[in-house]
Amino acid sequence: MKKIILSTIVLFISGVTMLNAQADRKDVQIGVKGGINSSTISGDDLGDLESRTSFNAGLVAEIPITERLFFQPEVFYSGQGFDVQEIDQDNVFDTDDNIEYQLDYIQVPLLLKAYLVKGLSVEAGPQFGFKIHEEFDSQPTSDGGDIEIDSEDSYVKDFDTSVAVGASYKFDSGFFLSGRYNIGVTDIFEDDTPFESVDAKNNVWQFGLGFMF
Length: 213
Description:
Layout: H1 2-22, E1 29-43, E2 50-64, E3 69-87, E4 95-117, E5 120-137, E6 146-148, E7 159-170, E8 175-184, E9 200-212
Antiparallel strand pairs: 1-2, 1-9, 2-3, 3-4, 4-5, 5-6, 5-7, 7-8, 8-9
Domain Outer membrane protein beta-barrel: 20-190
Protein name: PorT family protein
Organism: Olleya sediminilitoris
């Protein structure tokens, strides 16, 4: 996991440096961001899954292409997954307990960002996720109940692809507010597992704030 995080950060910084050298303007900004996630998975035969509430935190850059158009690469931790609550026996996840299924990723969005007016922008682009942690939590509101899933026993793929669409508002001080929806485009379950025929994709709402230096 440490190697994945370190490699991703190195690639992020290298990409910012290379694109900065080619940009029309030189006022590249790098910042930090963090916020709240509301995540679940969607697909056939999944039943009534509840969303998991977690957080995200990481780095963001804003690299000018034209006066109003920017390239915005990011790298951040994202707590994702879903809650299972009193699912009936016809459902893929058969349980009468409240269980939080935690899927945590390092996400790398590569976004195109356009300023509509001063401060207000919209953004969209592909996002690539690297799974770093997976576990069941049968007591999500208290300590205990955690069952970590080893990568060799996991049914969930290590790599995930999604499309990110959002908007943000940046103040003159450098602080910004953002809202985003990440739409999964690849199935999360591995082939040759009991869930291989299940069409399941990550979906995440993200709301937060950040600061550009």
